[in-house]
Amino acid sequence: MSNSLFRKKSLTKILQDAREGVADAHGSSGLKKVLNVRDLTLMGVAAVIGAGIFSTIGQAAYNGGPGVIFLFILTAVTCGFTALCYAEFASRVPVAGSAYTYSYVTFGELAAWIIGWALILEYSIGNIVVAISWSSYFNNVLEGMNIHLPAWLTTDFQTAKAQFEHVTSTGGAVDTLAWTTAPLLGSWRVIMNIPAFLIVVIITIVAYIGIRESKRSANAMVGLKIVVLLVVIAIGVFHINTDNWTPFLPNQFEGVLKGVSAVFFAYIGFDAISTTAEESANPQRDMPRAMIYSLIICTLIYVVITLVITGMVNYSEFNHVSDPLAYVFDQLNMEKVGYVISISAVVAATSVILVFQIGQPRIWMSMSRDGLLPKRFAKVHPKYQTPGFSTIVTGFIVAIPSLFVESGIVTDLTSIGTLFAFVLVCGGVLLLPKVDKSTKKFNLPYINGQFIIPVLFIIFCYFFRKKINLDVFDHEHILFMIFIVLGAVISVLTFIKRYSLIPVLGMLCCLYLMIEIPVKSWLVFFAWMGGGLIVYFLYGYWKSKLAPQRP
Hints:
By secondary structure, the chain is mainly α. The chain has helices at 2-5, 11-26, 37-48, 51-64, 69-92, 98-106, 109-144, 157-170, 177-180, 194-209, 211-236, 252-257, 260-265, 283-312, 324-331, 335-369, 388-404, 408-431, 452-463, 475-497, 501-515, 519-543; strands at residues 184-185, 188-189. Among the domains are: 2-8 and 48-147 and 195-430, Amino acid/polyamine transporter I (Up-down Bundle), CATH 1.20.1740.10; 157-191, no CATH class. The chain has 22 helices and two strands. The protein has a two-stranded antiparallel sheet with strand order 1-2. It is a multi-pass membrane protein.
């Protein structure tokens, strides 16, 4: 059984299944190849520039001051390492499925299932967070138009209850209308987030109708929000007070690192491009370019926006500010500009929901082709040429919880699932067989990490030597020590086997970001993955196309 858990699918077989499997096994046509490098780049920008830049950037700036731009750059470099690894896979395996398919080639079936299950956290569960954020911005826009929805229809039960209990115990000024005005169903207060539910339903319909329509919608939304961000920069640059940039690192680099979760969440999504490989006209050439282009564009926007807003308003004012871009203009009595920004935030979040609702069904489609999920998940709609059933299921999984779930409990979970996928992608590149580079349109540069990685690891241990303490056993310290052990093992293997520098750096950087996530989220992550393993051993292991055929 141990051998069958790591059974691998060959590159040749995967490419053959992509060309023939859908039509032959499911009696439907393939996916439309309509995406070019511009479409893919804009799709990447659509996925990355969303709720993050309009919300989490404020708290990150409060912790790190203007110097938080260094964290954006470091995170971009980390994502850049991963993007190059994704690009290497995409050039060899130009099919839908993203990290799931790549892991099937390199690590085997069990690892592929685990990463496919983890990607649900990035796409579906992550989209719940974005939908809730969209609802908040949308409600603010309606308020500006003097349209007032009932408070109990714009939030979740736990948030409303927490706000009411906070006011009751402390006498604070938090709005409690959602709790006090909610209708009763017996003894239960009816509180639900209707706008979040409706936007997911609408976007799911768009994703179901077709990739061409989704492409047009995403491109239009990306264009609009980039224009708005450029307007923010153009206006804000004339209101910068350079005194606000002093000190540039008010809380030293430790303060900058406090924003790791917030900043990384702002980058989640660039890998969604890889899920549309089969709808790309020239995936081997265009997908690597699109990943890198979108990452560069987003980083430049993040850095400039951060410098502008921390120049307009002192970093110390951003504590618990959920709408920092609108906030800075409100502080300068430019409320109309702030209102336009709120509208842009709605558009930005909409584009993220769209891209993720496109990505998740295509991962399930790939898993179904391999027999790990029922055949219906791989069925392509004969008219719209999209994975129809998978798209509908994704809509239900995102829409229903968005009515009731509190966003805070799934944000860190999304980050863990994403980073976990990134680690396996970077590690998987090291296991790919060598091929003739002349046959590929993208080649990951080989830089011998034999000496560089061990030296960098020793330098890291020197600067963090105070945390390497075997007498401390709190959860955060245990995670750090696990990273040190893994880092040491990876450094030794790199020295012995002369691994390529870029994927190894990608693995180490992602592993470090993972240990910065709170321990309670790790416990939920392990429970989630445990549930996934149960599903695999009850269904996928026996139904896999690589499973031995019973007589």
